[in-house]
Amino acid sequence: MRTSVASLAAESGNENEDWFSASAHLLVVLDGATARTGTGCIHGISWYSAHLGAALSEIAHDPSIPLRDVLAAGIQRVSNLHRSSCNLSHPGTPSAAVAIVRIAGARLDYLVLGDVTVVLDMGGRILALSDERVSQTAMNERRAADSYSIGTAEKDAAMVRMKHAELAQRNRENGYWIAAADPTAAQQSLAGHLKVGEVRRLAVLTDGAARIVKPFGLLSWPELLDLAEAVSPEQVLRQVREAEASDPLGSRWPRNKASDDATMLLGVGVGD
């Protein structure tokens, strides 16, 4: 598999809380969850994403370890790194959405936890995998936040209320699941496998990149893959930024913030 990647912070000069690694046989992408409340952690979201991503990239290289177990071991390893210095029981402890794609022989394994998207082109049939449970929590607070223009004090206050309501449902039944401090969350991930020969090309996108398809609707998944393959993943992200700039207040596409960290990994020649 031949890989290419692009990653842009939400705003130039800002820290990018996405994290990725890519090789011919393993793709790992994390999207650090924005902290709008206290976290009980002295390190921050980027630290968490980077350390968890590095752990997953190492552990997943052993194809005998199922990806859910890879994720559980990675969460446990990072928890052990800062358990003595941080309050990991804090409701806002750093967290991240995760996607892993691994090729081992004739088998392609995938895992998604949180709203990172894995797109698989299976010779004309597109399979797009994302865990959208987080967007189904705090619905009243989300609708309220969407009613305000981006950049207003009312929007900012509504986003904090939404975050508190969302965190109350994190990593519990009938809520949503994400990588944080509890390794048992890994067992709630969407995981499966395919034959490598079934897949022509694939992409992994954080929600800041996937928004060009959902909710913006400016590209379809096949069009996104075609553009990334013909030009580059960076061109996809540039189109995301152009769309965001055309709607700075969120009038056309209500959303949490004008721009988001955006990362896209493309793999082609998967079955070669």
TrEMBL record:
InterPro entries the record matches: PPM-type-like_dom_sf, PPM-type_phosphatase-like_dom
Positions of the PPM-type phosphatase domain: 16-214
Phylogenetic classification of the source organism: Bacteria, Bacillati, Actinomycetota, Actinomycetes, Micromonosporales
Transmembrane intervals: none
Range of residues in the leader sequence: none
Annotated organism of origin: Paractinoplanes brasiliensis
Protein name: Protein phosphatase 2C-like protein
SUPFAM superfamilies: PP2C-like
